[in-house]
DNA sequence: CTTGACCCTGTAACGGTTACAGGGTTTAGG
DNA sequence: CCTAAACCCTGTAACCGTTACAGGGTCAAG
C-alpha cells in the first residue's frame, strides 16, 4: 500500500491551493484521483510530482494550455519532443518581447515621476503628460498584459 | 453649438473601442454623456481628451482605478498633486520589479530551450527540468501577471 | 424595400485564482 | 460525550479589462 495524501496535504507539500488543484482536475491536467469512503480525493506520489510540474511551469509564466501540452508529451515518452522546444522557445520569445515593452514603459514613467514635487494638480506634469496626445507606445500589447 | 461625436466616431479618433468607452462610463471614469433623440451618446471635445487620457494611462500599464484617481486630481486642480506622483512612482516600481522577475525567468527558459533537438519526450530536458523540484523562482509574482 | 452600418442594453466569455455559500466528516480538547 | 476547529465536498461568483455575443432599434444609400 503506497501512501496517499488528501488534498490539503498535497496543497501544503506543493504550495498549490486546493482550489487550484481541483481546477486543474476540472481542466484535465490532472486525472480524477481515487476517492476515499467519504468522497475525499486521495493523491499518490505521482500526482504530487505532476502538480509540481504544473506549478513550476506556472512559475515560468507558461499558461495552463501549454503546460497541458507538455504534460501530454510527458505522458507519451515516444513522442518527438520538438513540440516541447517549440513551446518553450515561443514562450521565451514572448517574455523577451514583454521585457522590451516594459523597459520602454519604465523609461516613459521615469521621465514623468518626481517632476512636480508639492505642486497643485493644475500644474501637475504627470497629469499633463497623460493628456498629451503622444502615447509613446500605442501598439497592442505594449502596456501590461491584461 | 460645439461639434459632438457619436460613440463610433469617438472610437475612431481615440483608438478606444465603443465597448470600452461604455465600460469606462459604467465604471464612472466618464460622466454619462448627453443623449440625442434616439438615445445615442453624444460626446464633446473634452470627453475625447478624457478618453485619450485614459488610453494613454492604460498604455502605460496603469489600472483603471489608478487612472480614476488621476482623473479625480485633474478634476480638482487645487488639490495637492503628490498623490499623482505617488501613483506614478508606485507603478514605476512595480514595472521595474516585473522586468527583473521576467529577466530571471527568461534566463531559466534560455537554459532549457534548444537542449534536446530531435529527441524523444522520454529524454526531453525541458520536461525533466519542469519535473525537477527546484523552481528557480517560487515567490509570488514571479511568473507573469495574471 | 432591402441591405448594411450604425447605435442601444445586457450578458457571457477569456485566464487563473480566490472567495464565498451551504453542506458533510474528522479530530482534538474539555 | 460534546463541541469547536479544521478539513473536505460541490457549485457559483468575483477579480481585471476587453471582446463578443444576442436581440433589438434607427438611419442612410442603393
From TrEMBL, chains A, B:
Signal peptide: none
Assigned keywords, A-Z: DNA-binding, Transcription, Transcription regulation
Xref: Gene3D superfamilies: 1.10.1660.10
Protein name (record): HTH merR-type domain-containing protein
MF GO annotations: DNA binding; DNA-binding transcription factor activity
InterPro entries: DNA-bd_dom_put_sf (IPR009061), MerR-type_HTH_dom (IPR000551), MerR_fam (IPR047057), Tscrpt_reg_MerR_DNA-bd (IPR015358)
Sequence ranges assigned to domain HTH merR-type in this UniProt record: 4-73
Amino acid at each position: 500500500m503506497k501512501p496517499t495524501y488528501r488534498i490539503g496535504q498535497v496543497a501544503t507539500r506543493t504550495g498549490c491551493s486546493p482550489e487550484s488543484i481541483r481546477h486543474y482536475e476540472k481542466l484535465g491536467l490532472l486525472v480524477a484521483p481515487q476517492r476515499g469512503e467519504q468522497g475525499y480525493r486521495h493523491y499518490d506520489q505521482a500526482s504530487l510530482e505532476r502538480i509540481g510540474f504544473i506549478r513550476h511551469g506556472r512559475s515560468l509564466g507558461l499558461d495552463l494550455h501549454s503546460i497541458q501540452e507538455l504534460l501530454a508529451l510527458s505522458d507519451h515518452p515516444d513522442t518527438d519532443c520538438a513540440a516541447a522546444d517549440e513551446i518553450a522557445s515561443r514562450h521565451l520569445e514572448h517574455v523577451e518581447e514583454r521585457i522590451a515593452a516594459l523597459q520602454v514603459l519604465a523609461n516613459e514613467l521615469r521621465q514623468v515621476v518626481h517632476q512636480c514635487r508639492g505642486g497643485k494638480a493644475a500644474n501637475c506634469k504627470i497629469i499633463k503628460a497623460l493628456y498629451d496626445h503622444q502615447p509613446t507606445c500605442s501598439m497592442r500589447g505594449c502596456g501590461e498584459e491584461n
